[in-house]
Amino acid sequence: MRSVVLRSCPACGARLLGAAGVSWMPCTACASAWDAFAEPPERIPTFRPASSRGVAGPRLPFYVFGVGTRAGETRVFVPAYRAPGERSDADLGARLTVERYAAEFAEAPLGAAVARGPREAAALLASRRPKSSGGDAAWMALVSLSCRLERDALVEPVTGWRLPLAELFPGPILAGAPPPAAS
Ligand SMILES: [Zn+2]
Question: Which of 6, 37, 46, 51 is the most buried (most CB within 10 A)?
Fold first, then answer.
């Protein structure tokens, strides 16, 4: 059985996603991540592609793992949102991994709420990392990618991937919603 630690977000008071023994906890509401075991709790840096800095609009969050392979480092993307309609072995994260999405990341507020904790993401990493990789990931980061809102779907512009809003949890943070707390 997996035990879940219930703590609340130092920024907004909403529930943090956490698992026993894992200090790294994303907030389910205000798109920040915290080391909840630090005294006082410390905000963990989050990222987005440097090229999309200042771009408004909805974003999708991912855990990105840096995994060493014979050919160098590969980035493995695991969705931090949930979309029950997506196959876990063929989701947008898997597509970004296969296409070797390689934007430079810059530290920035995430701007996207998260539905998956880091432990679950690490478990998913095990099933999707390249065969030639050895050992654990060298690093993990929470990254959000800008998307277009097209009627009833979010579209990730690099891959053209469509995610129906009705299948997306949590929904995107849209214009008019309160912005994530500044760091
Ligand atoms: Zn919060």
Answer: 46
